[in-house]
Amino acid sequence: MTAAARPSEGKVVVVLCALFLVACLIAAVALAARPELRRAVRDAVGRPAGLVAPHDAGPDRGPQTLEGVLSRQLVTGMITGPQYRHAMASIASRDAERHPLDVPPDADPPEPA
Asked: Is residue 113 part of a domain?
């Protein structure tokens, strides 16, 4: 490297001082938040995770679709994986018969310029 391509020593010192200042600020914020973090962890340890409900959860409703019912049965062990796949294949074939996929016609190719 030539001397013209190297940063001056003054610029290097300024950058290092700025990095040191940022590190000090991060450390100060971490130390200030430490008691609140400990309190939150201590409070969370006392509660079982399964009893915490989501904020937007309403009354417990069952699945709204057949796919949802099948998924719940699979998860609870009421049906096996092959039974689930067979039922989903039947639903897909019924859906394909009731609502066939309409493919748009091919567009005319553009005219050469």
From this structure: no
* Residue 62 CB contacts under 8 Å (≥ 6 apart), including other chains: 68, 69, 72
Q: Does the residue 1 lie in any domain? A: no
Q: Is the four-CA dihedral 23, 27, 30, 33 of positive or negative sign?
A: negative
Please tell me the distance from the alpha carbon of residue 98 to that of residue 90, in angstroms, as a whole number. Answer: 12
Per-residue pLDDT of the chain (113 residues; tens, 9 = 90+): 555 667 788 899 999 999 999 999 999 988 888 877 777 777 777 766 555 555 555 566 777 889 999 999 999 999 999 999 999 999 999 999 998 888 777 777 777 76
What is the number of structural domains in the chain? 2
Q: Which two tokens stand for residue 89?
A: 């294949």
Question: Is 77 inside a domain boundary?
Answer: yes
- Model pTM? 0.39
Residue 13 belongs to domain spanning: 9-46
In the structure encoding, which two tokens stand for residue 83, read together?
A: 């039974």
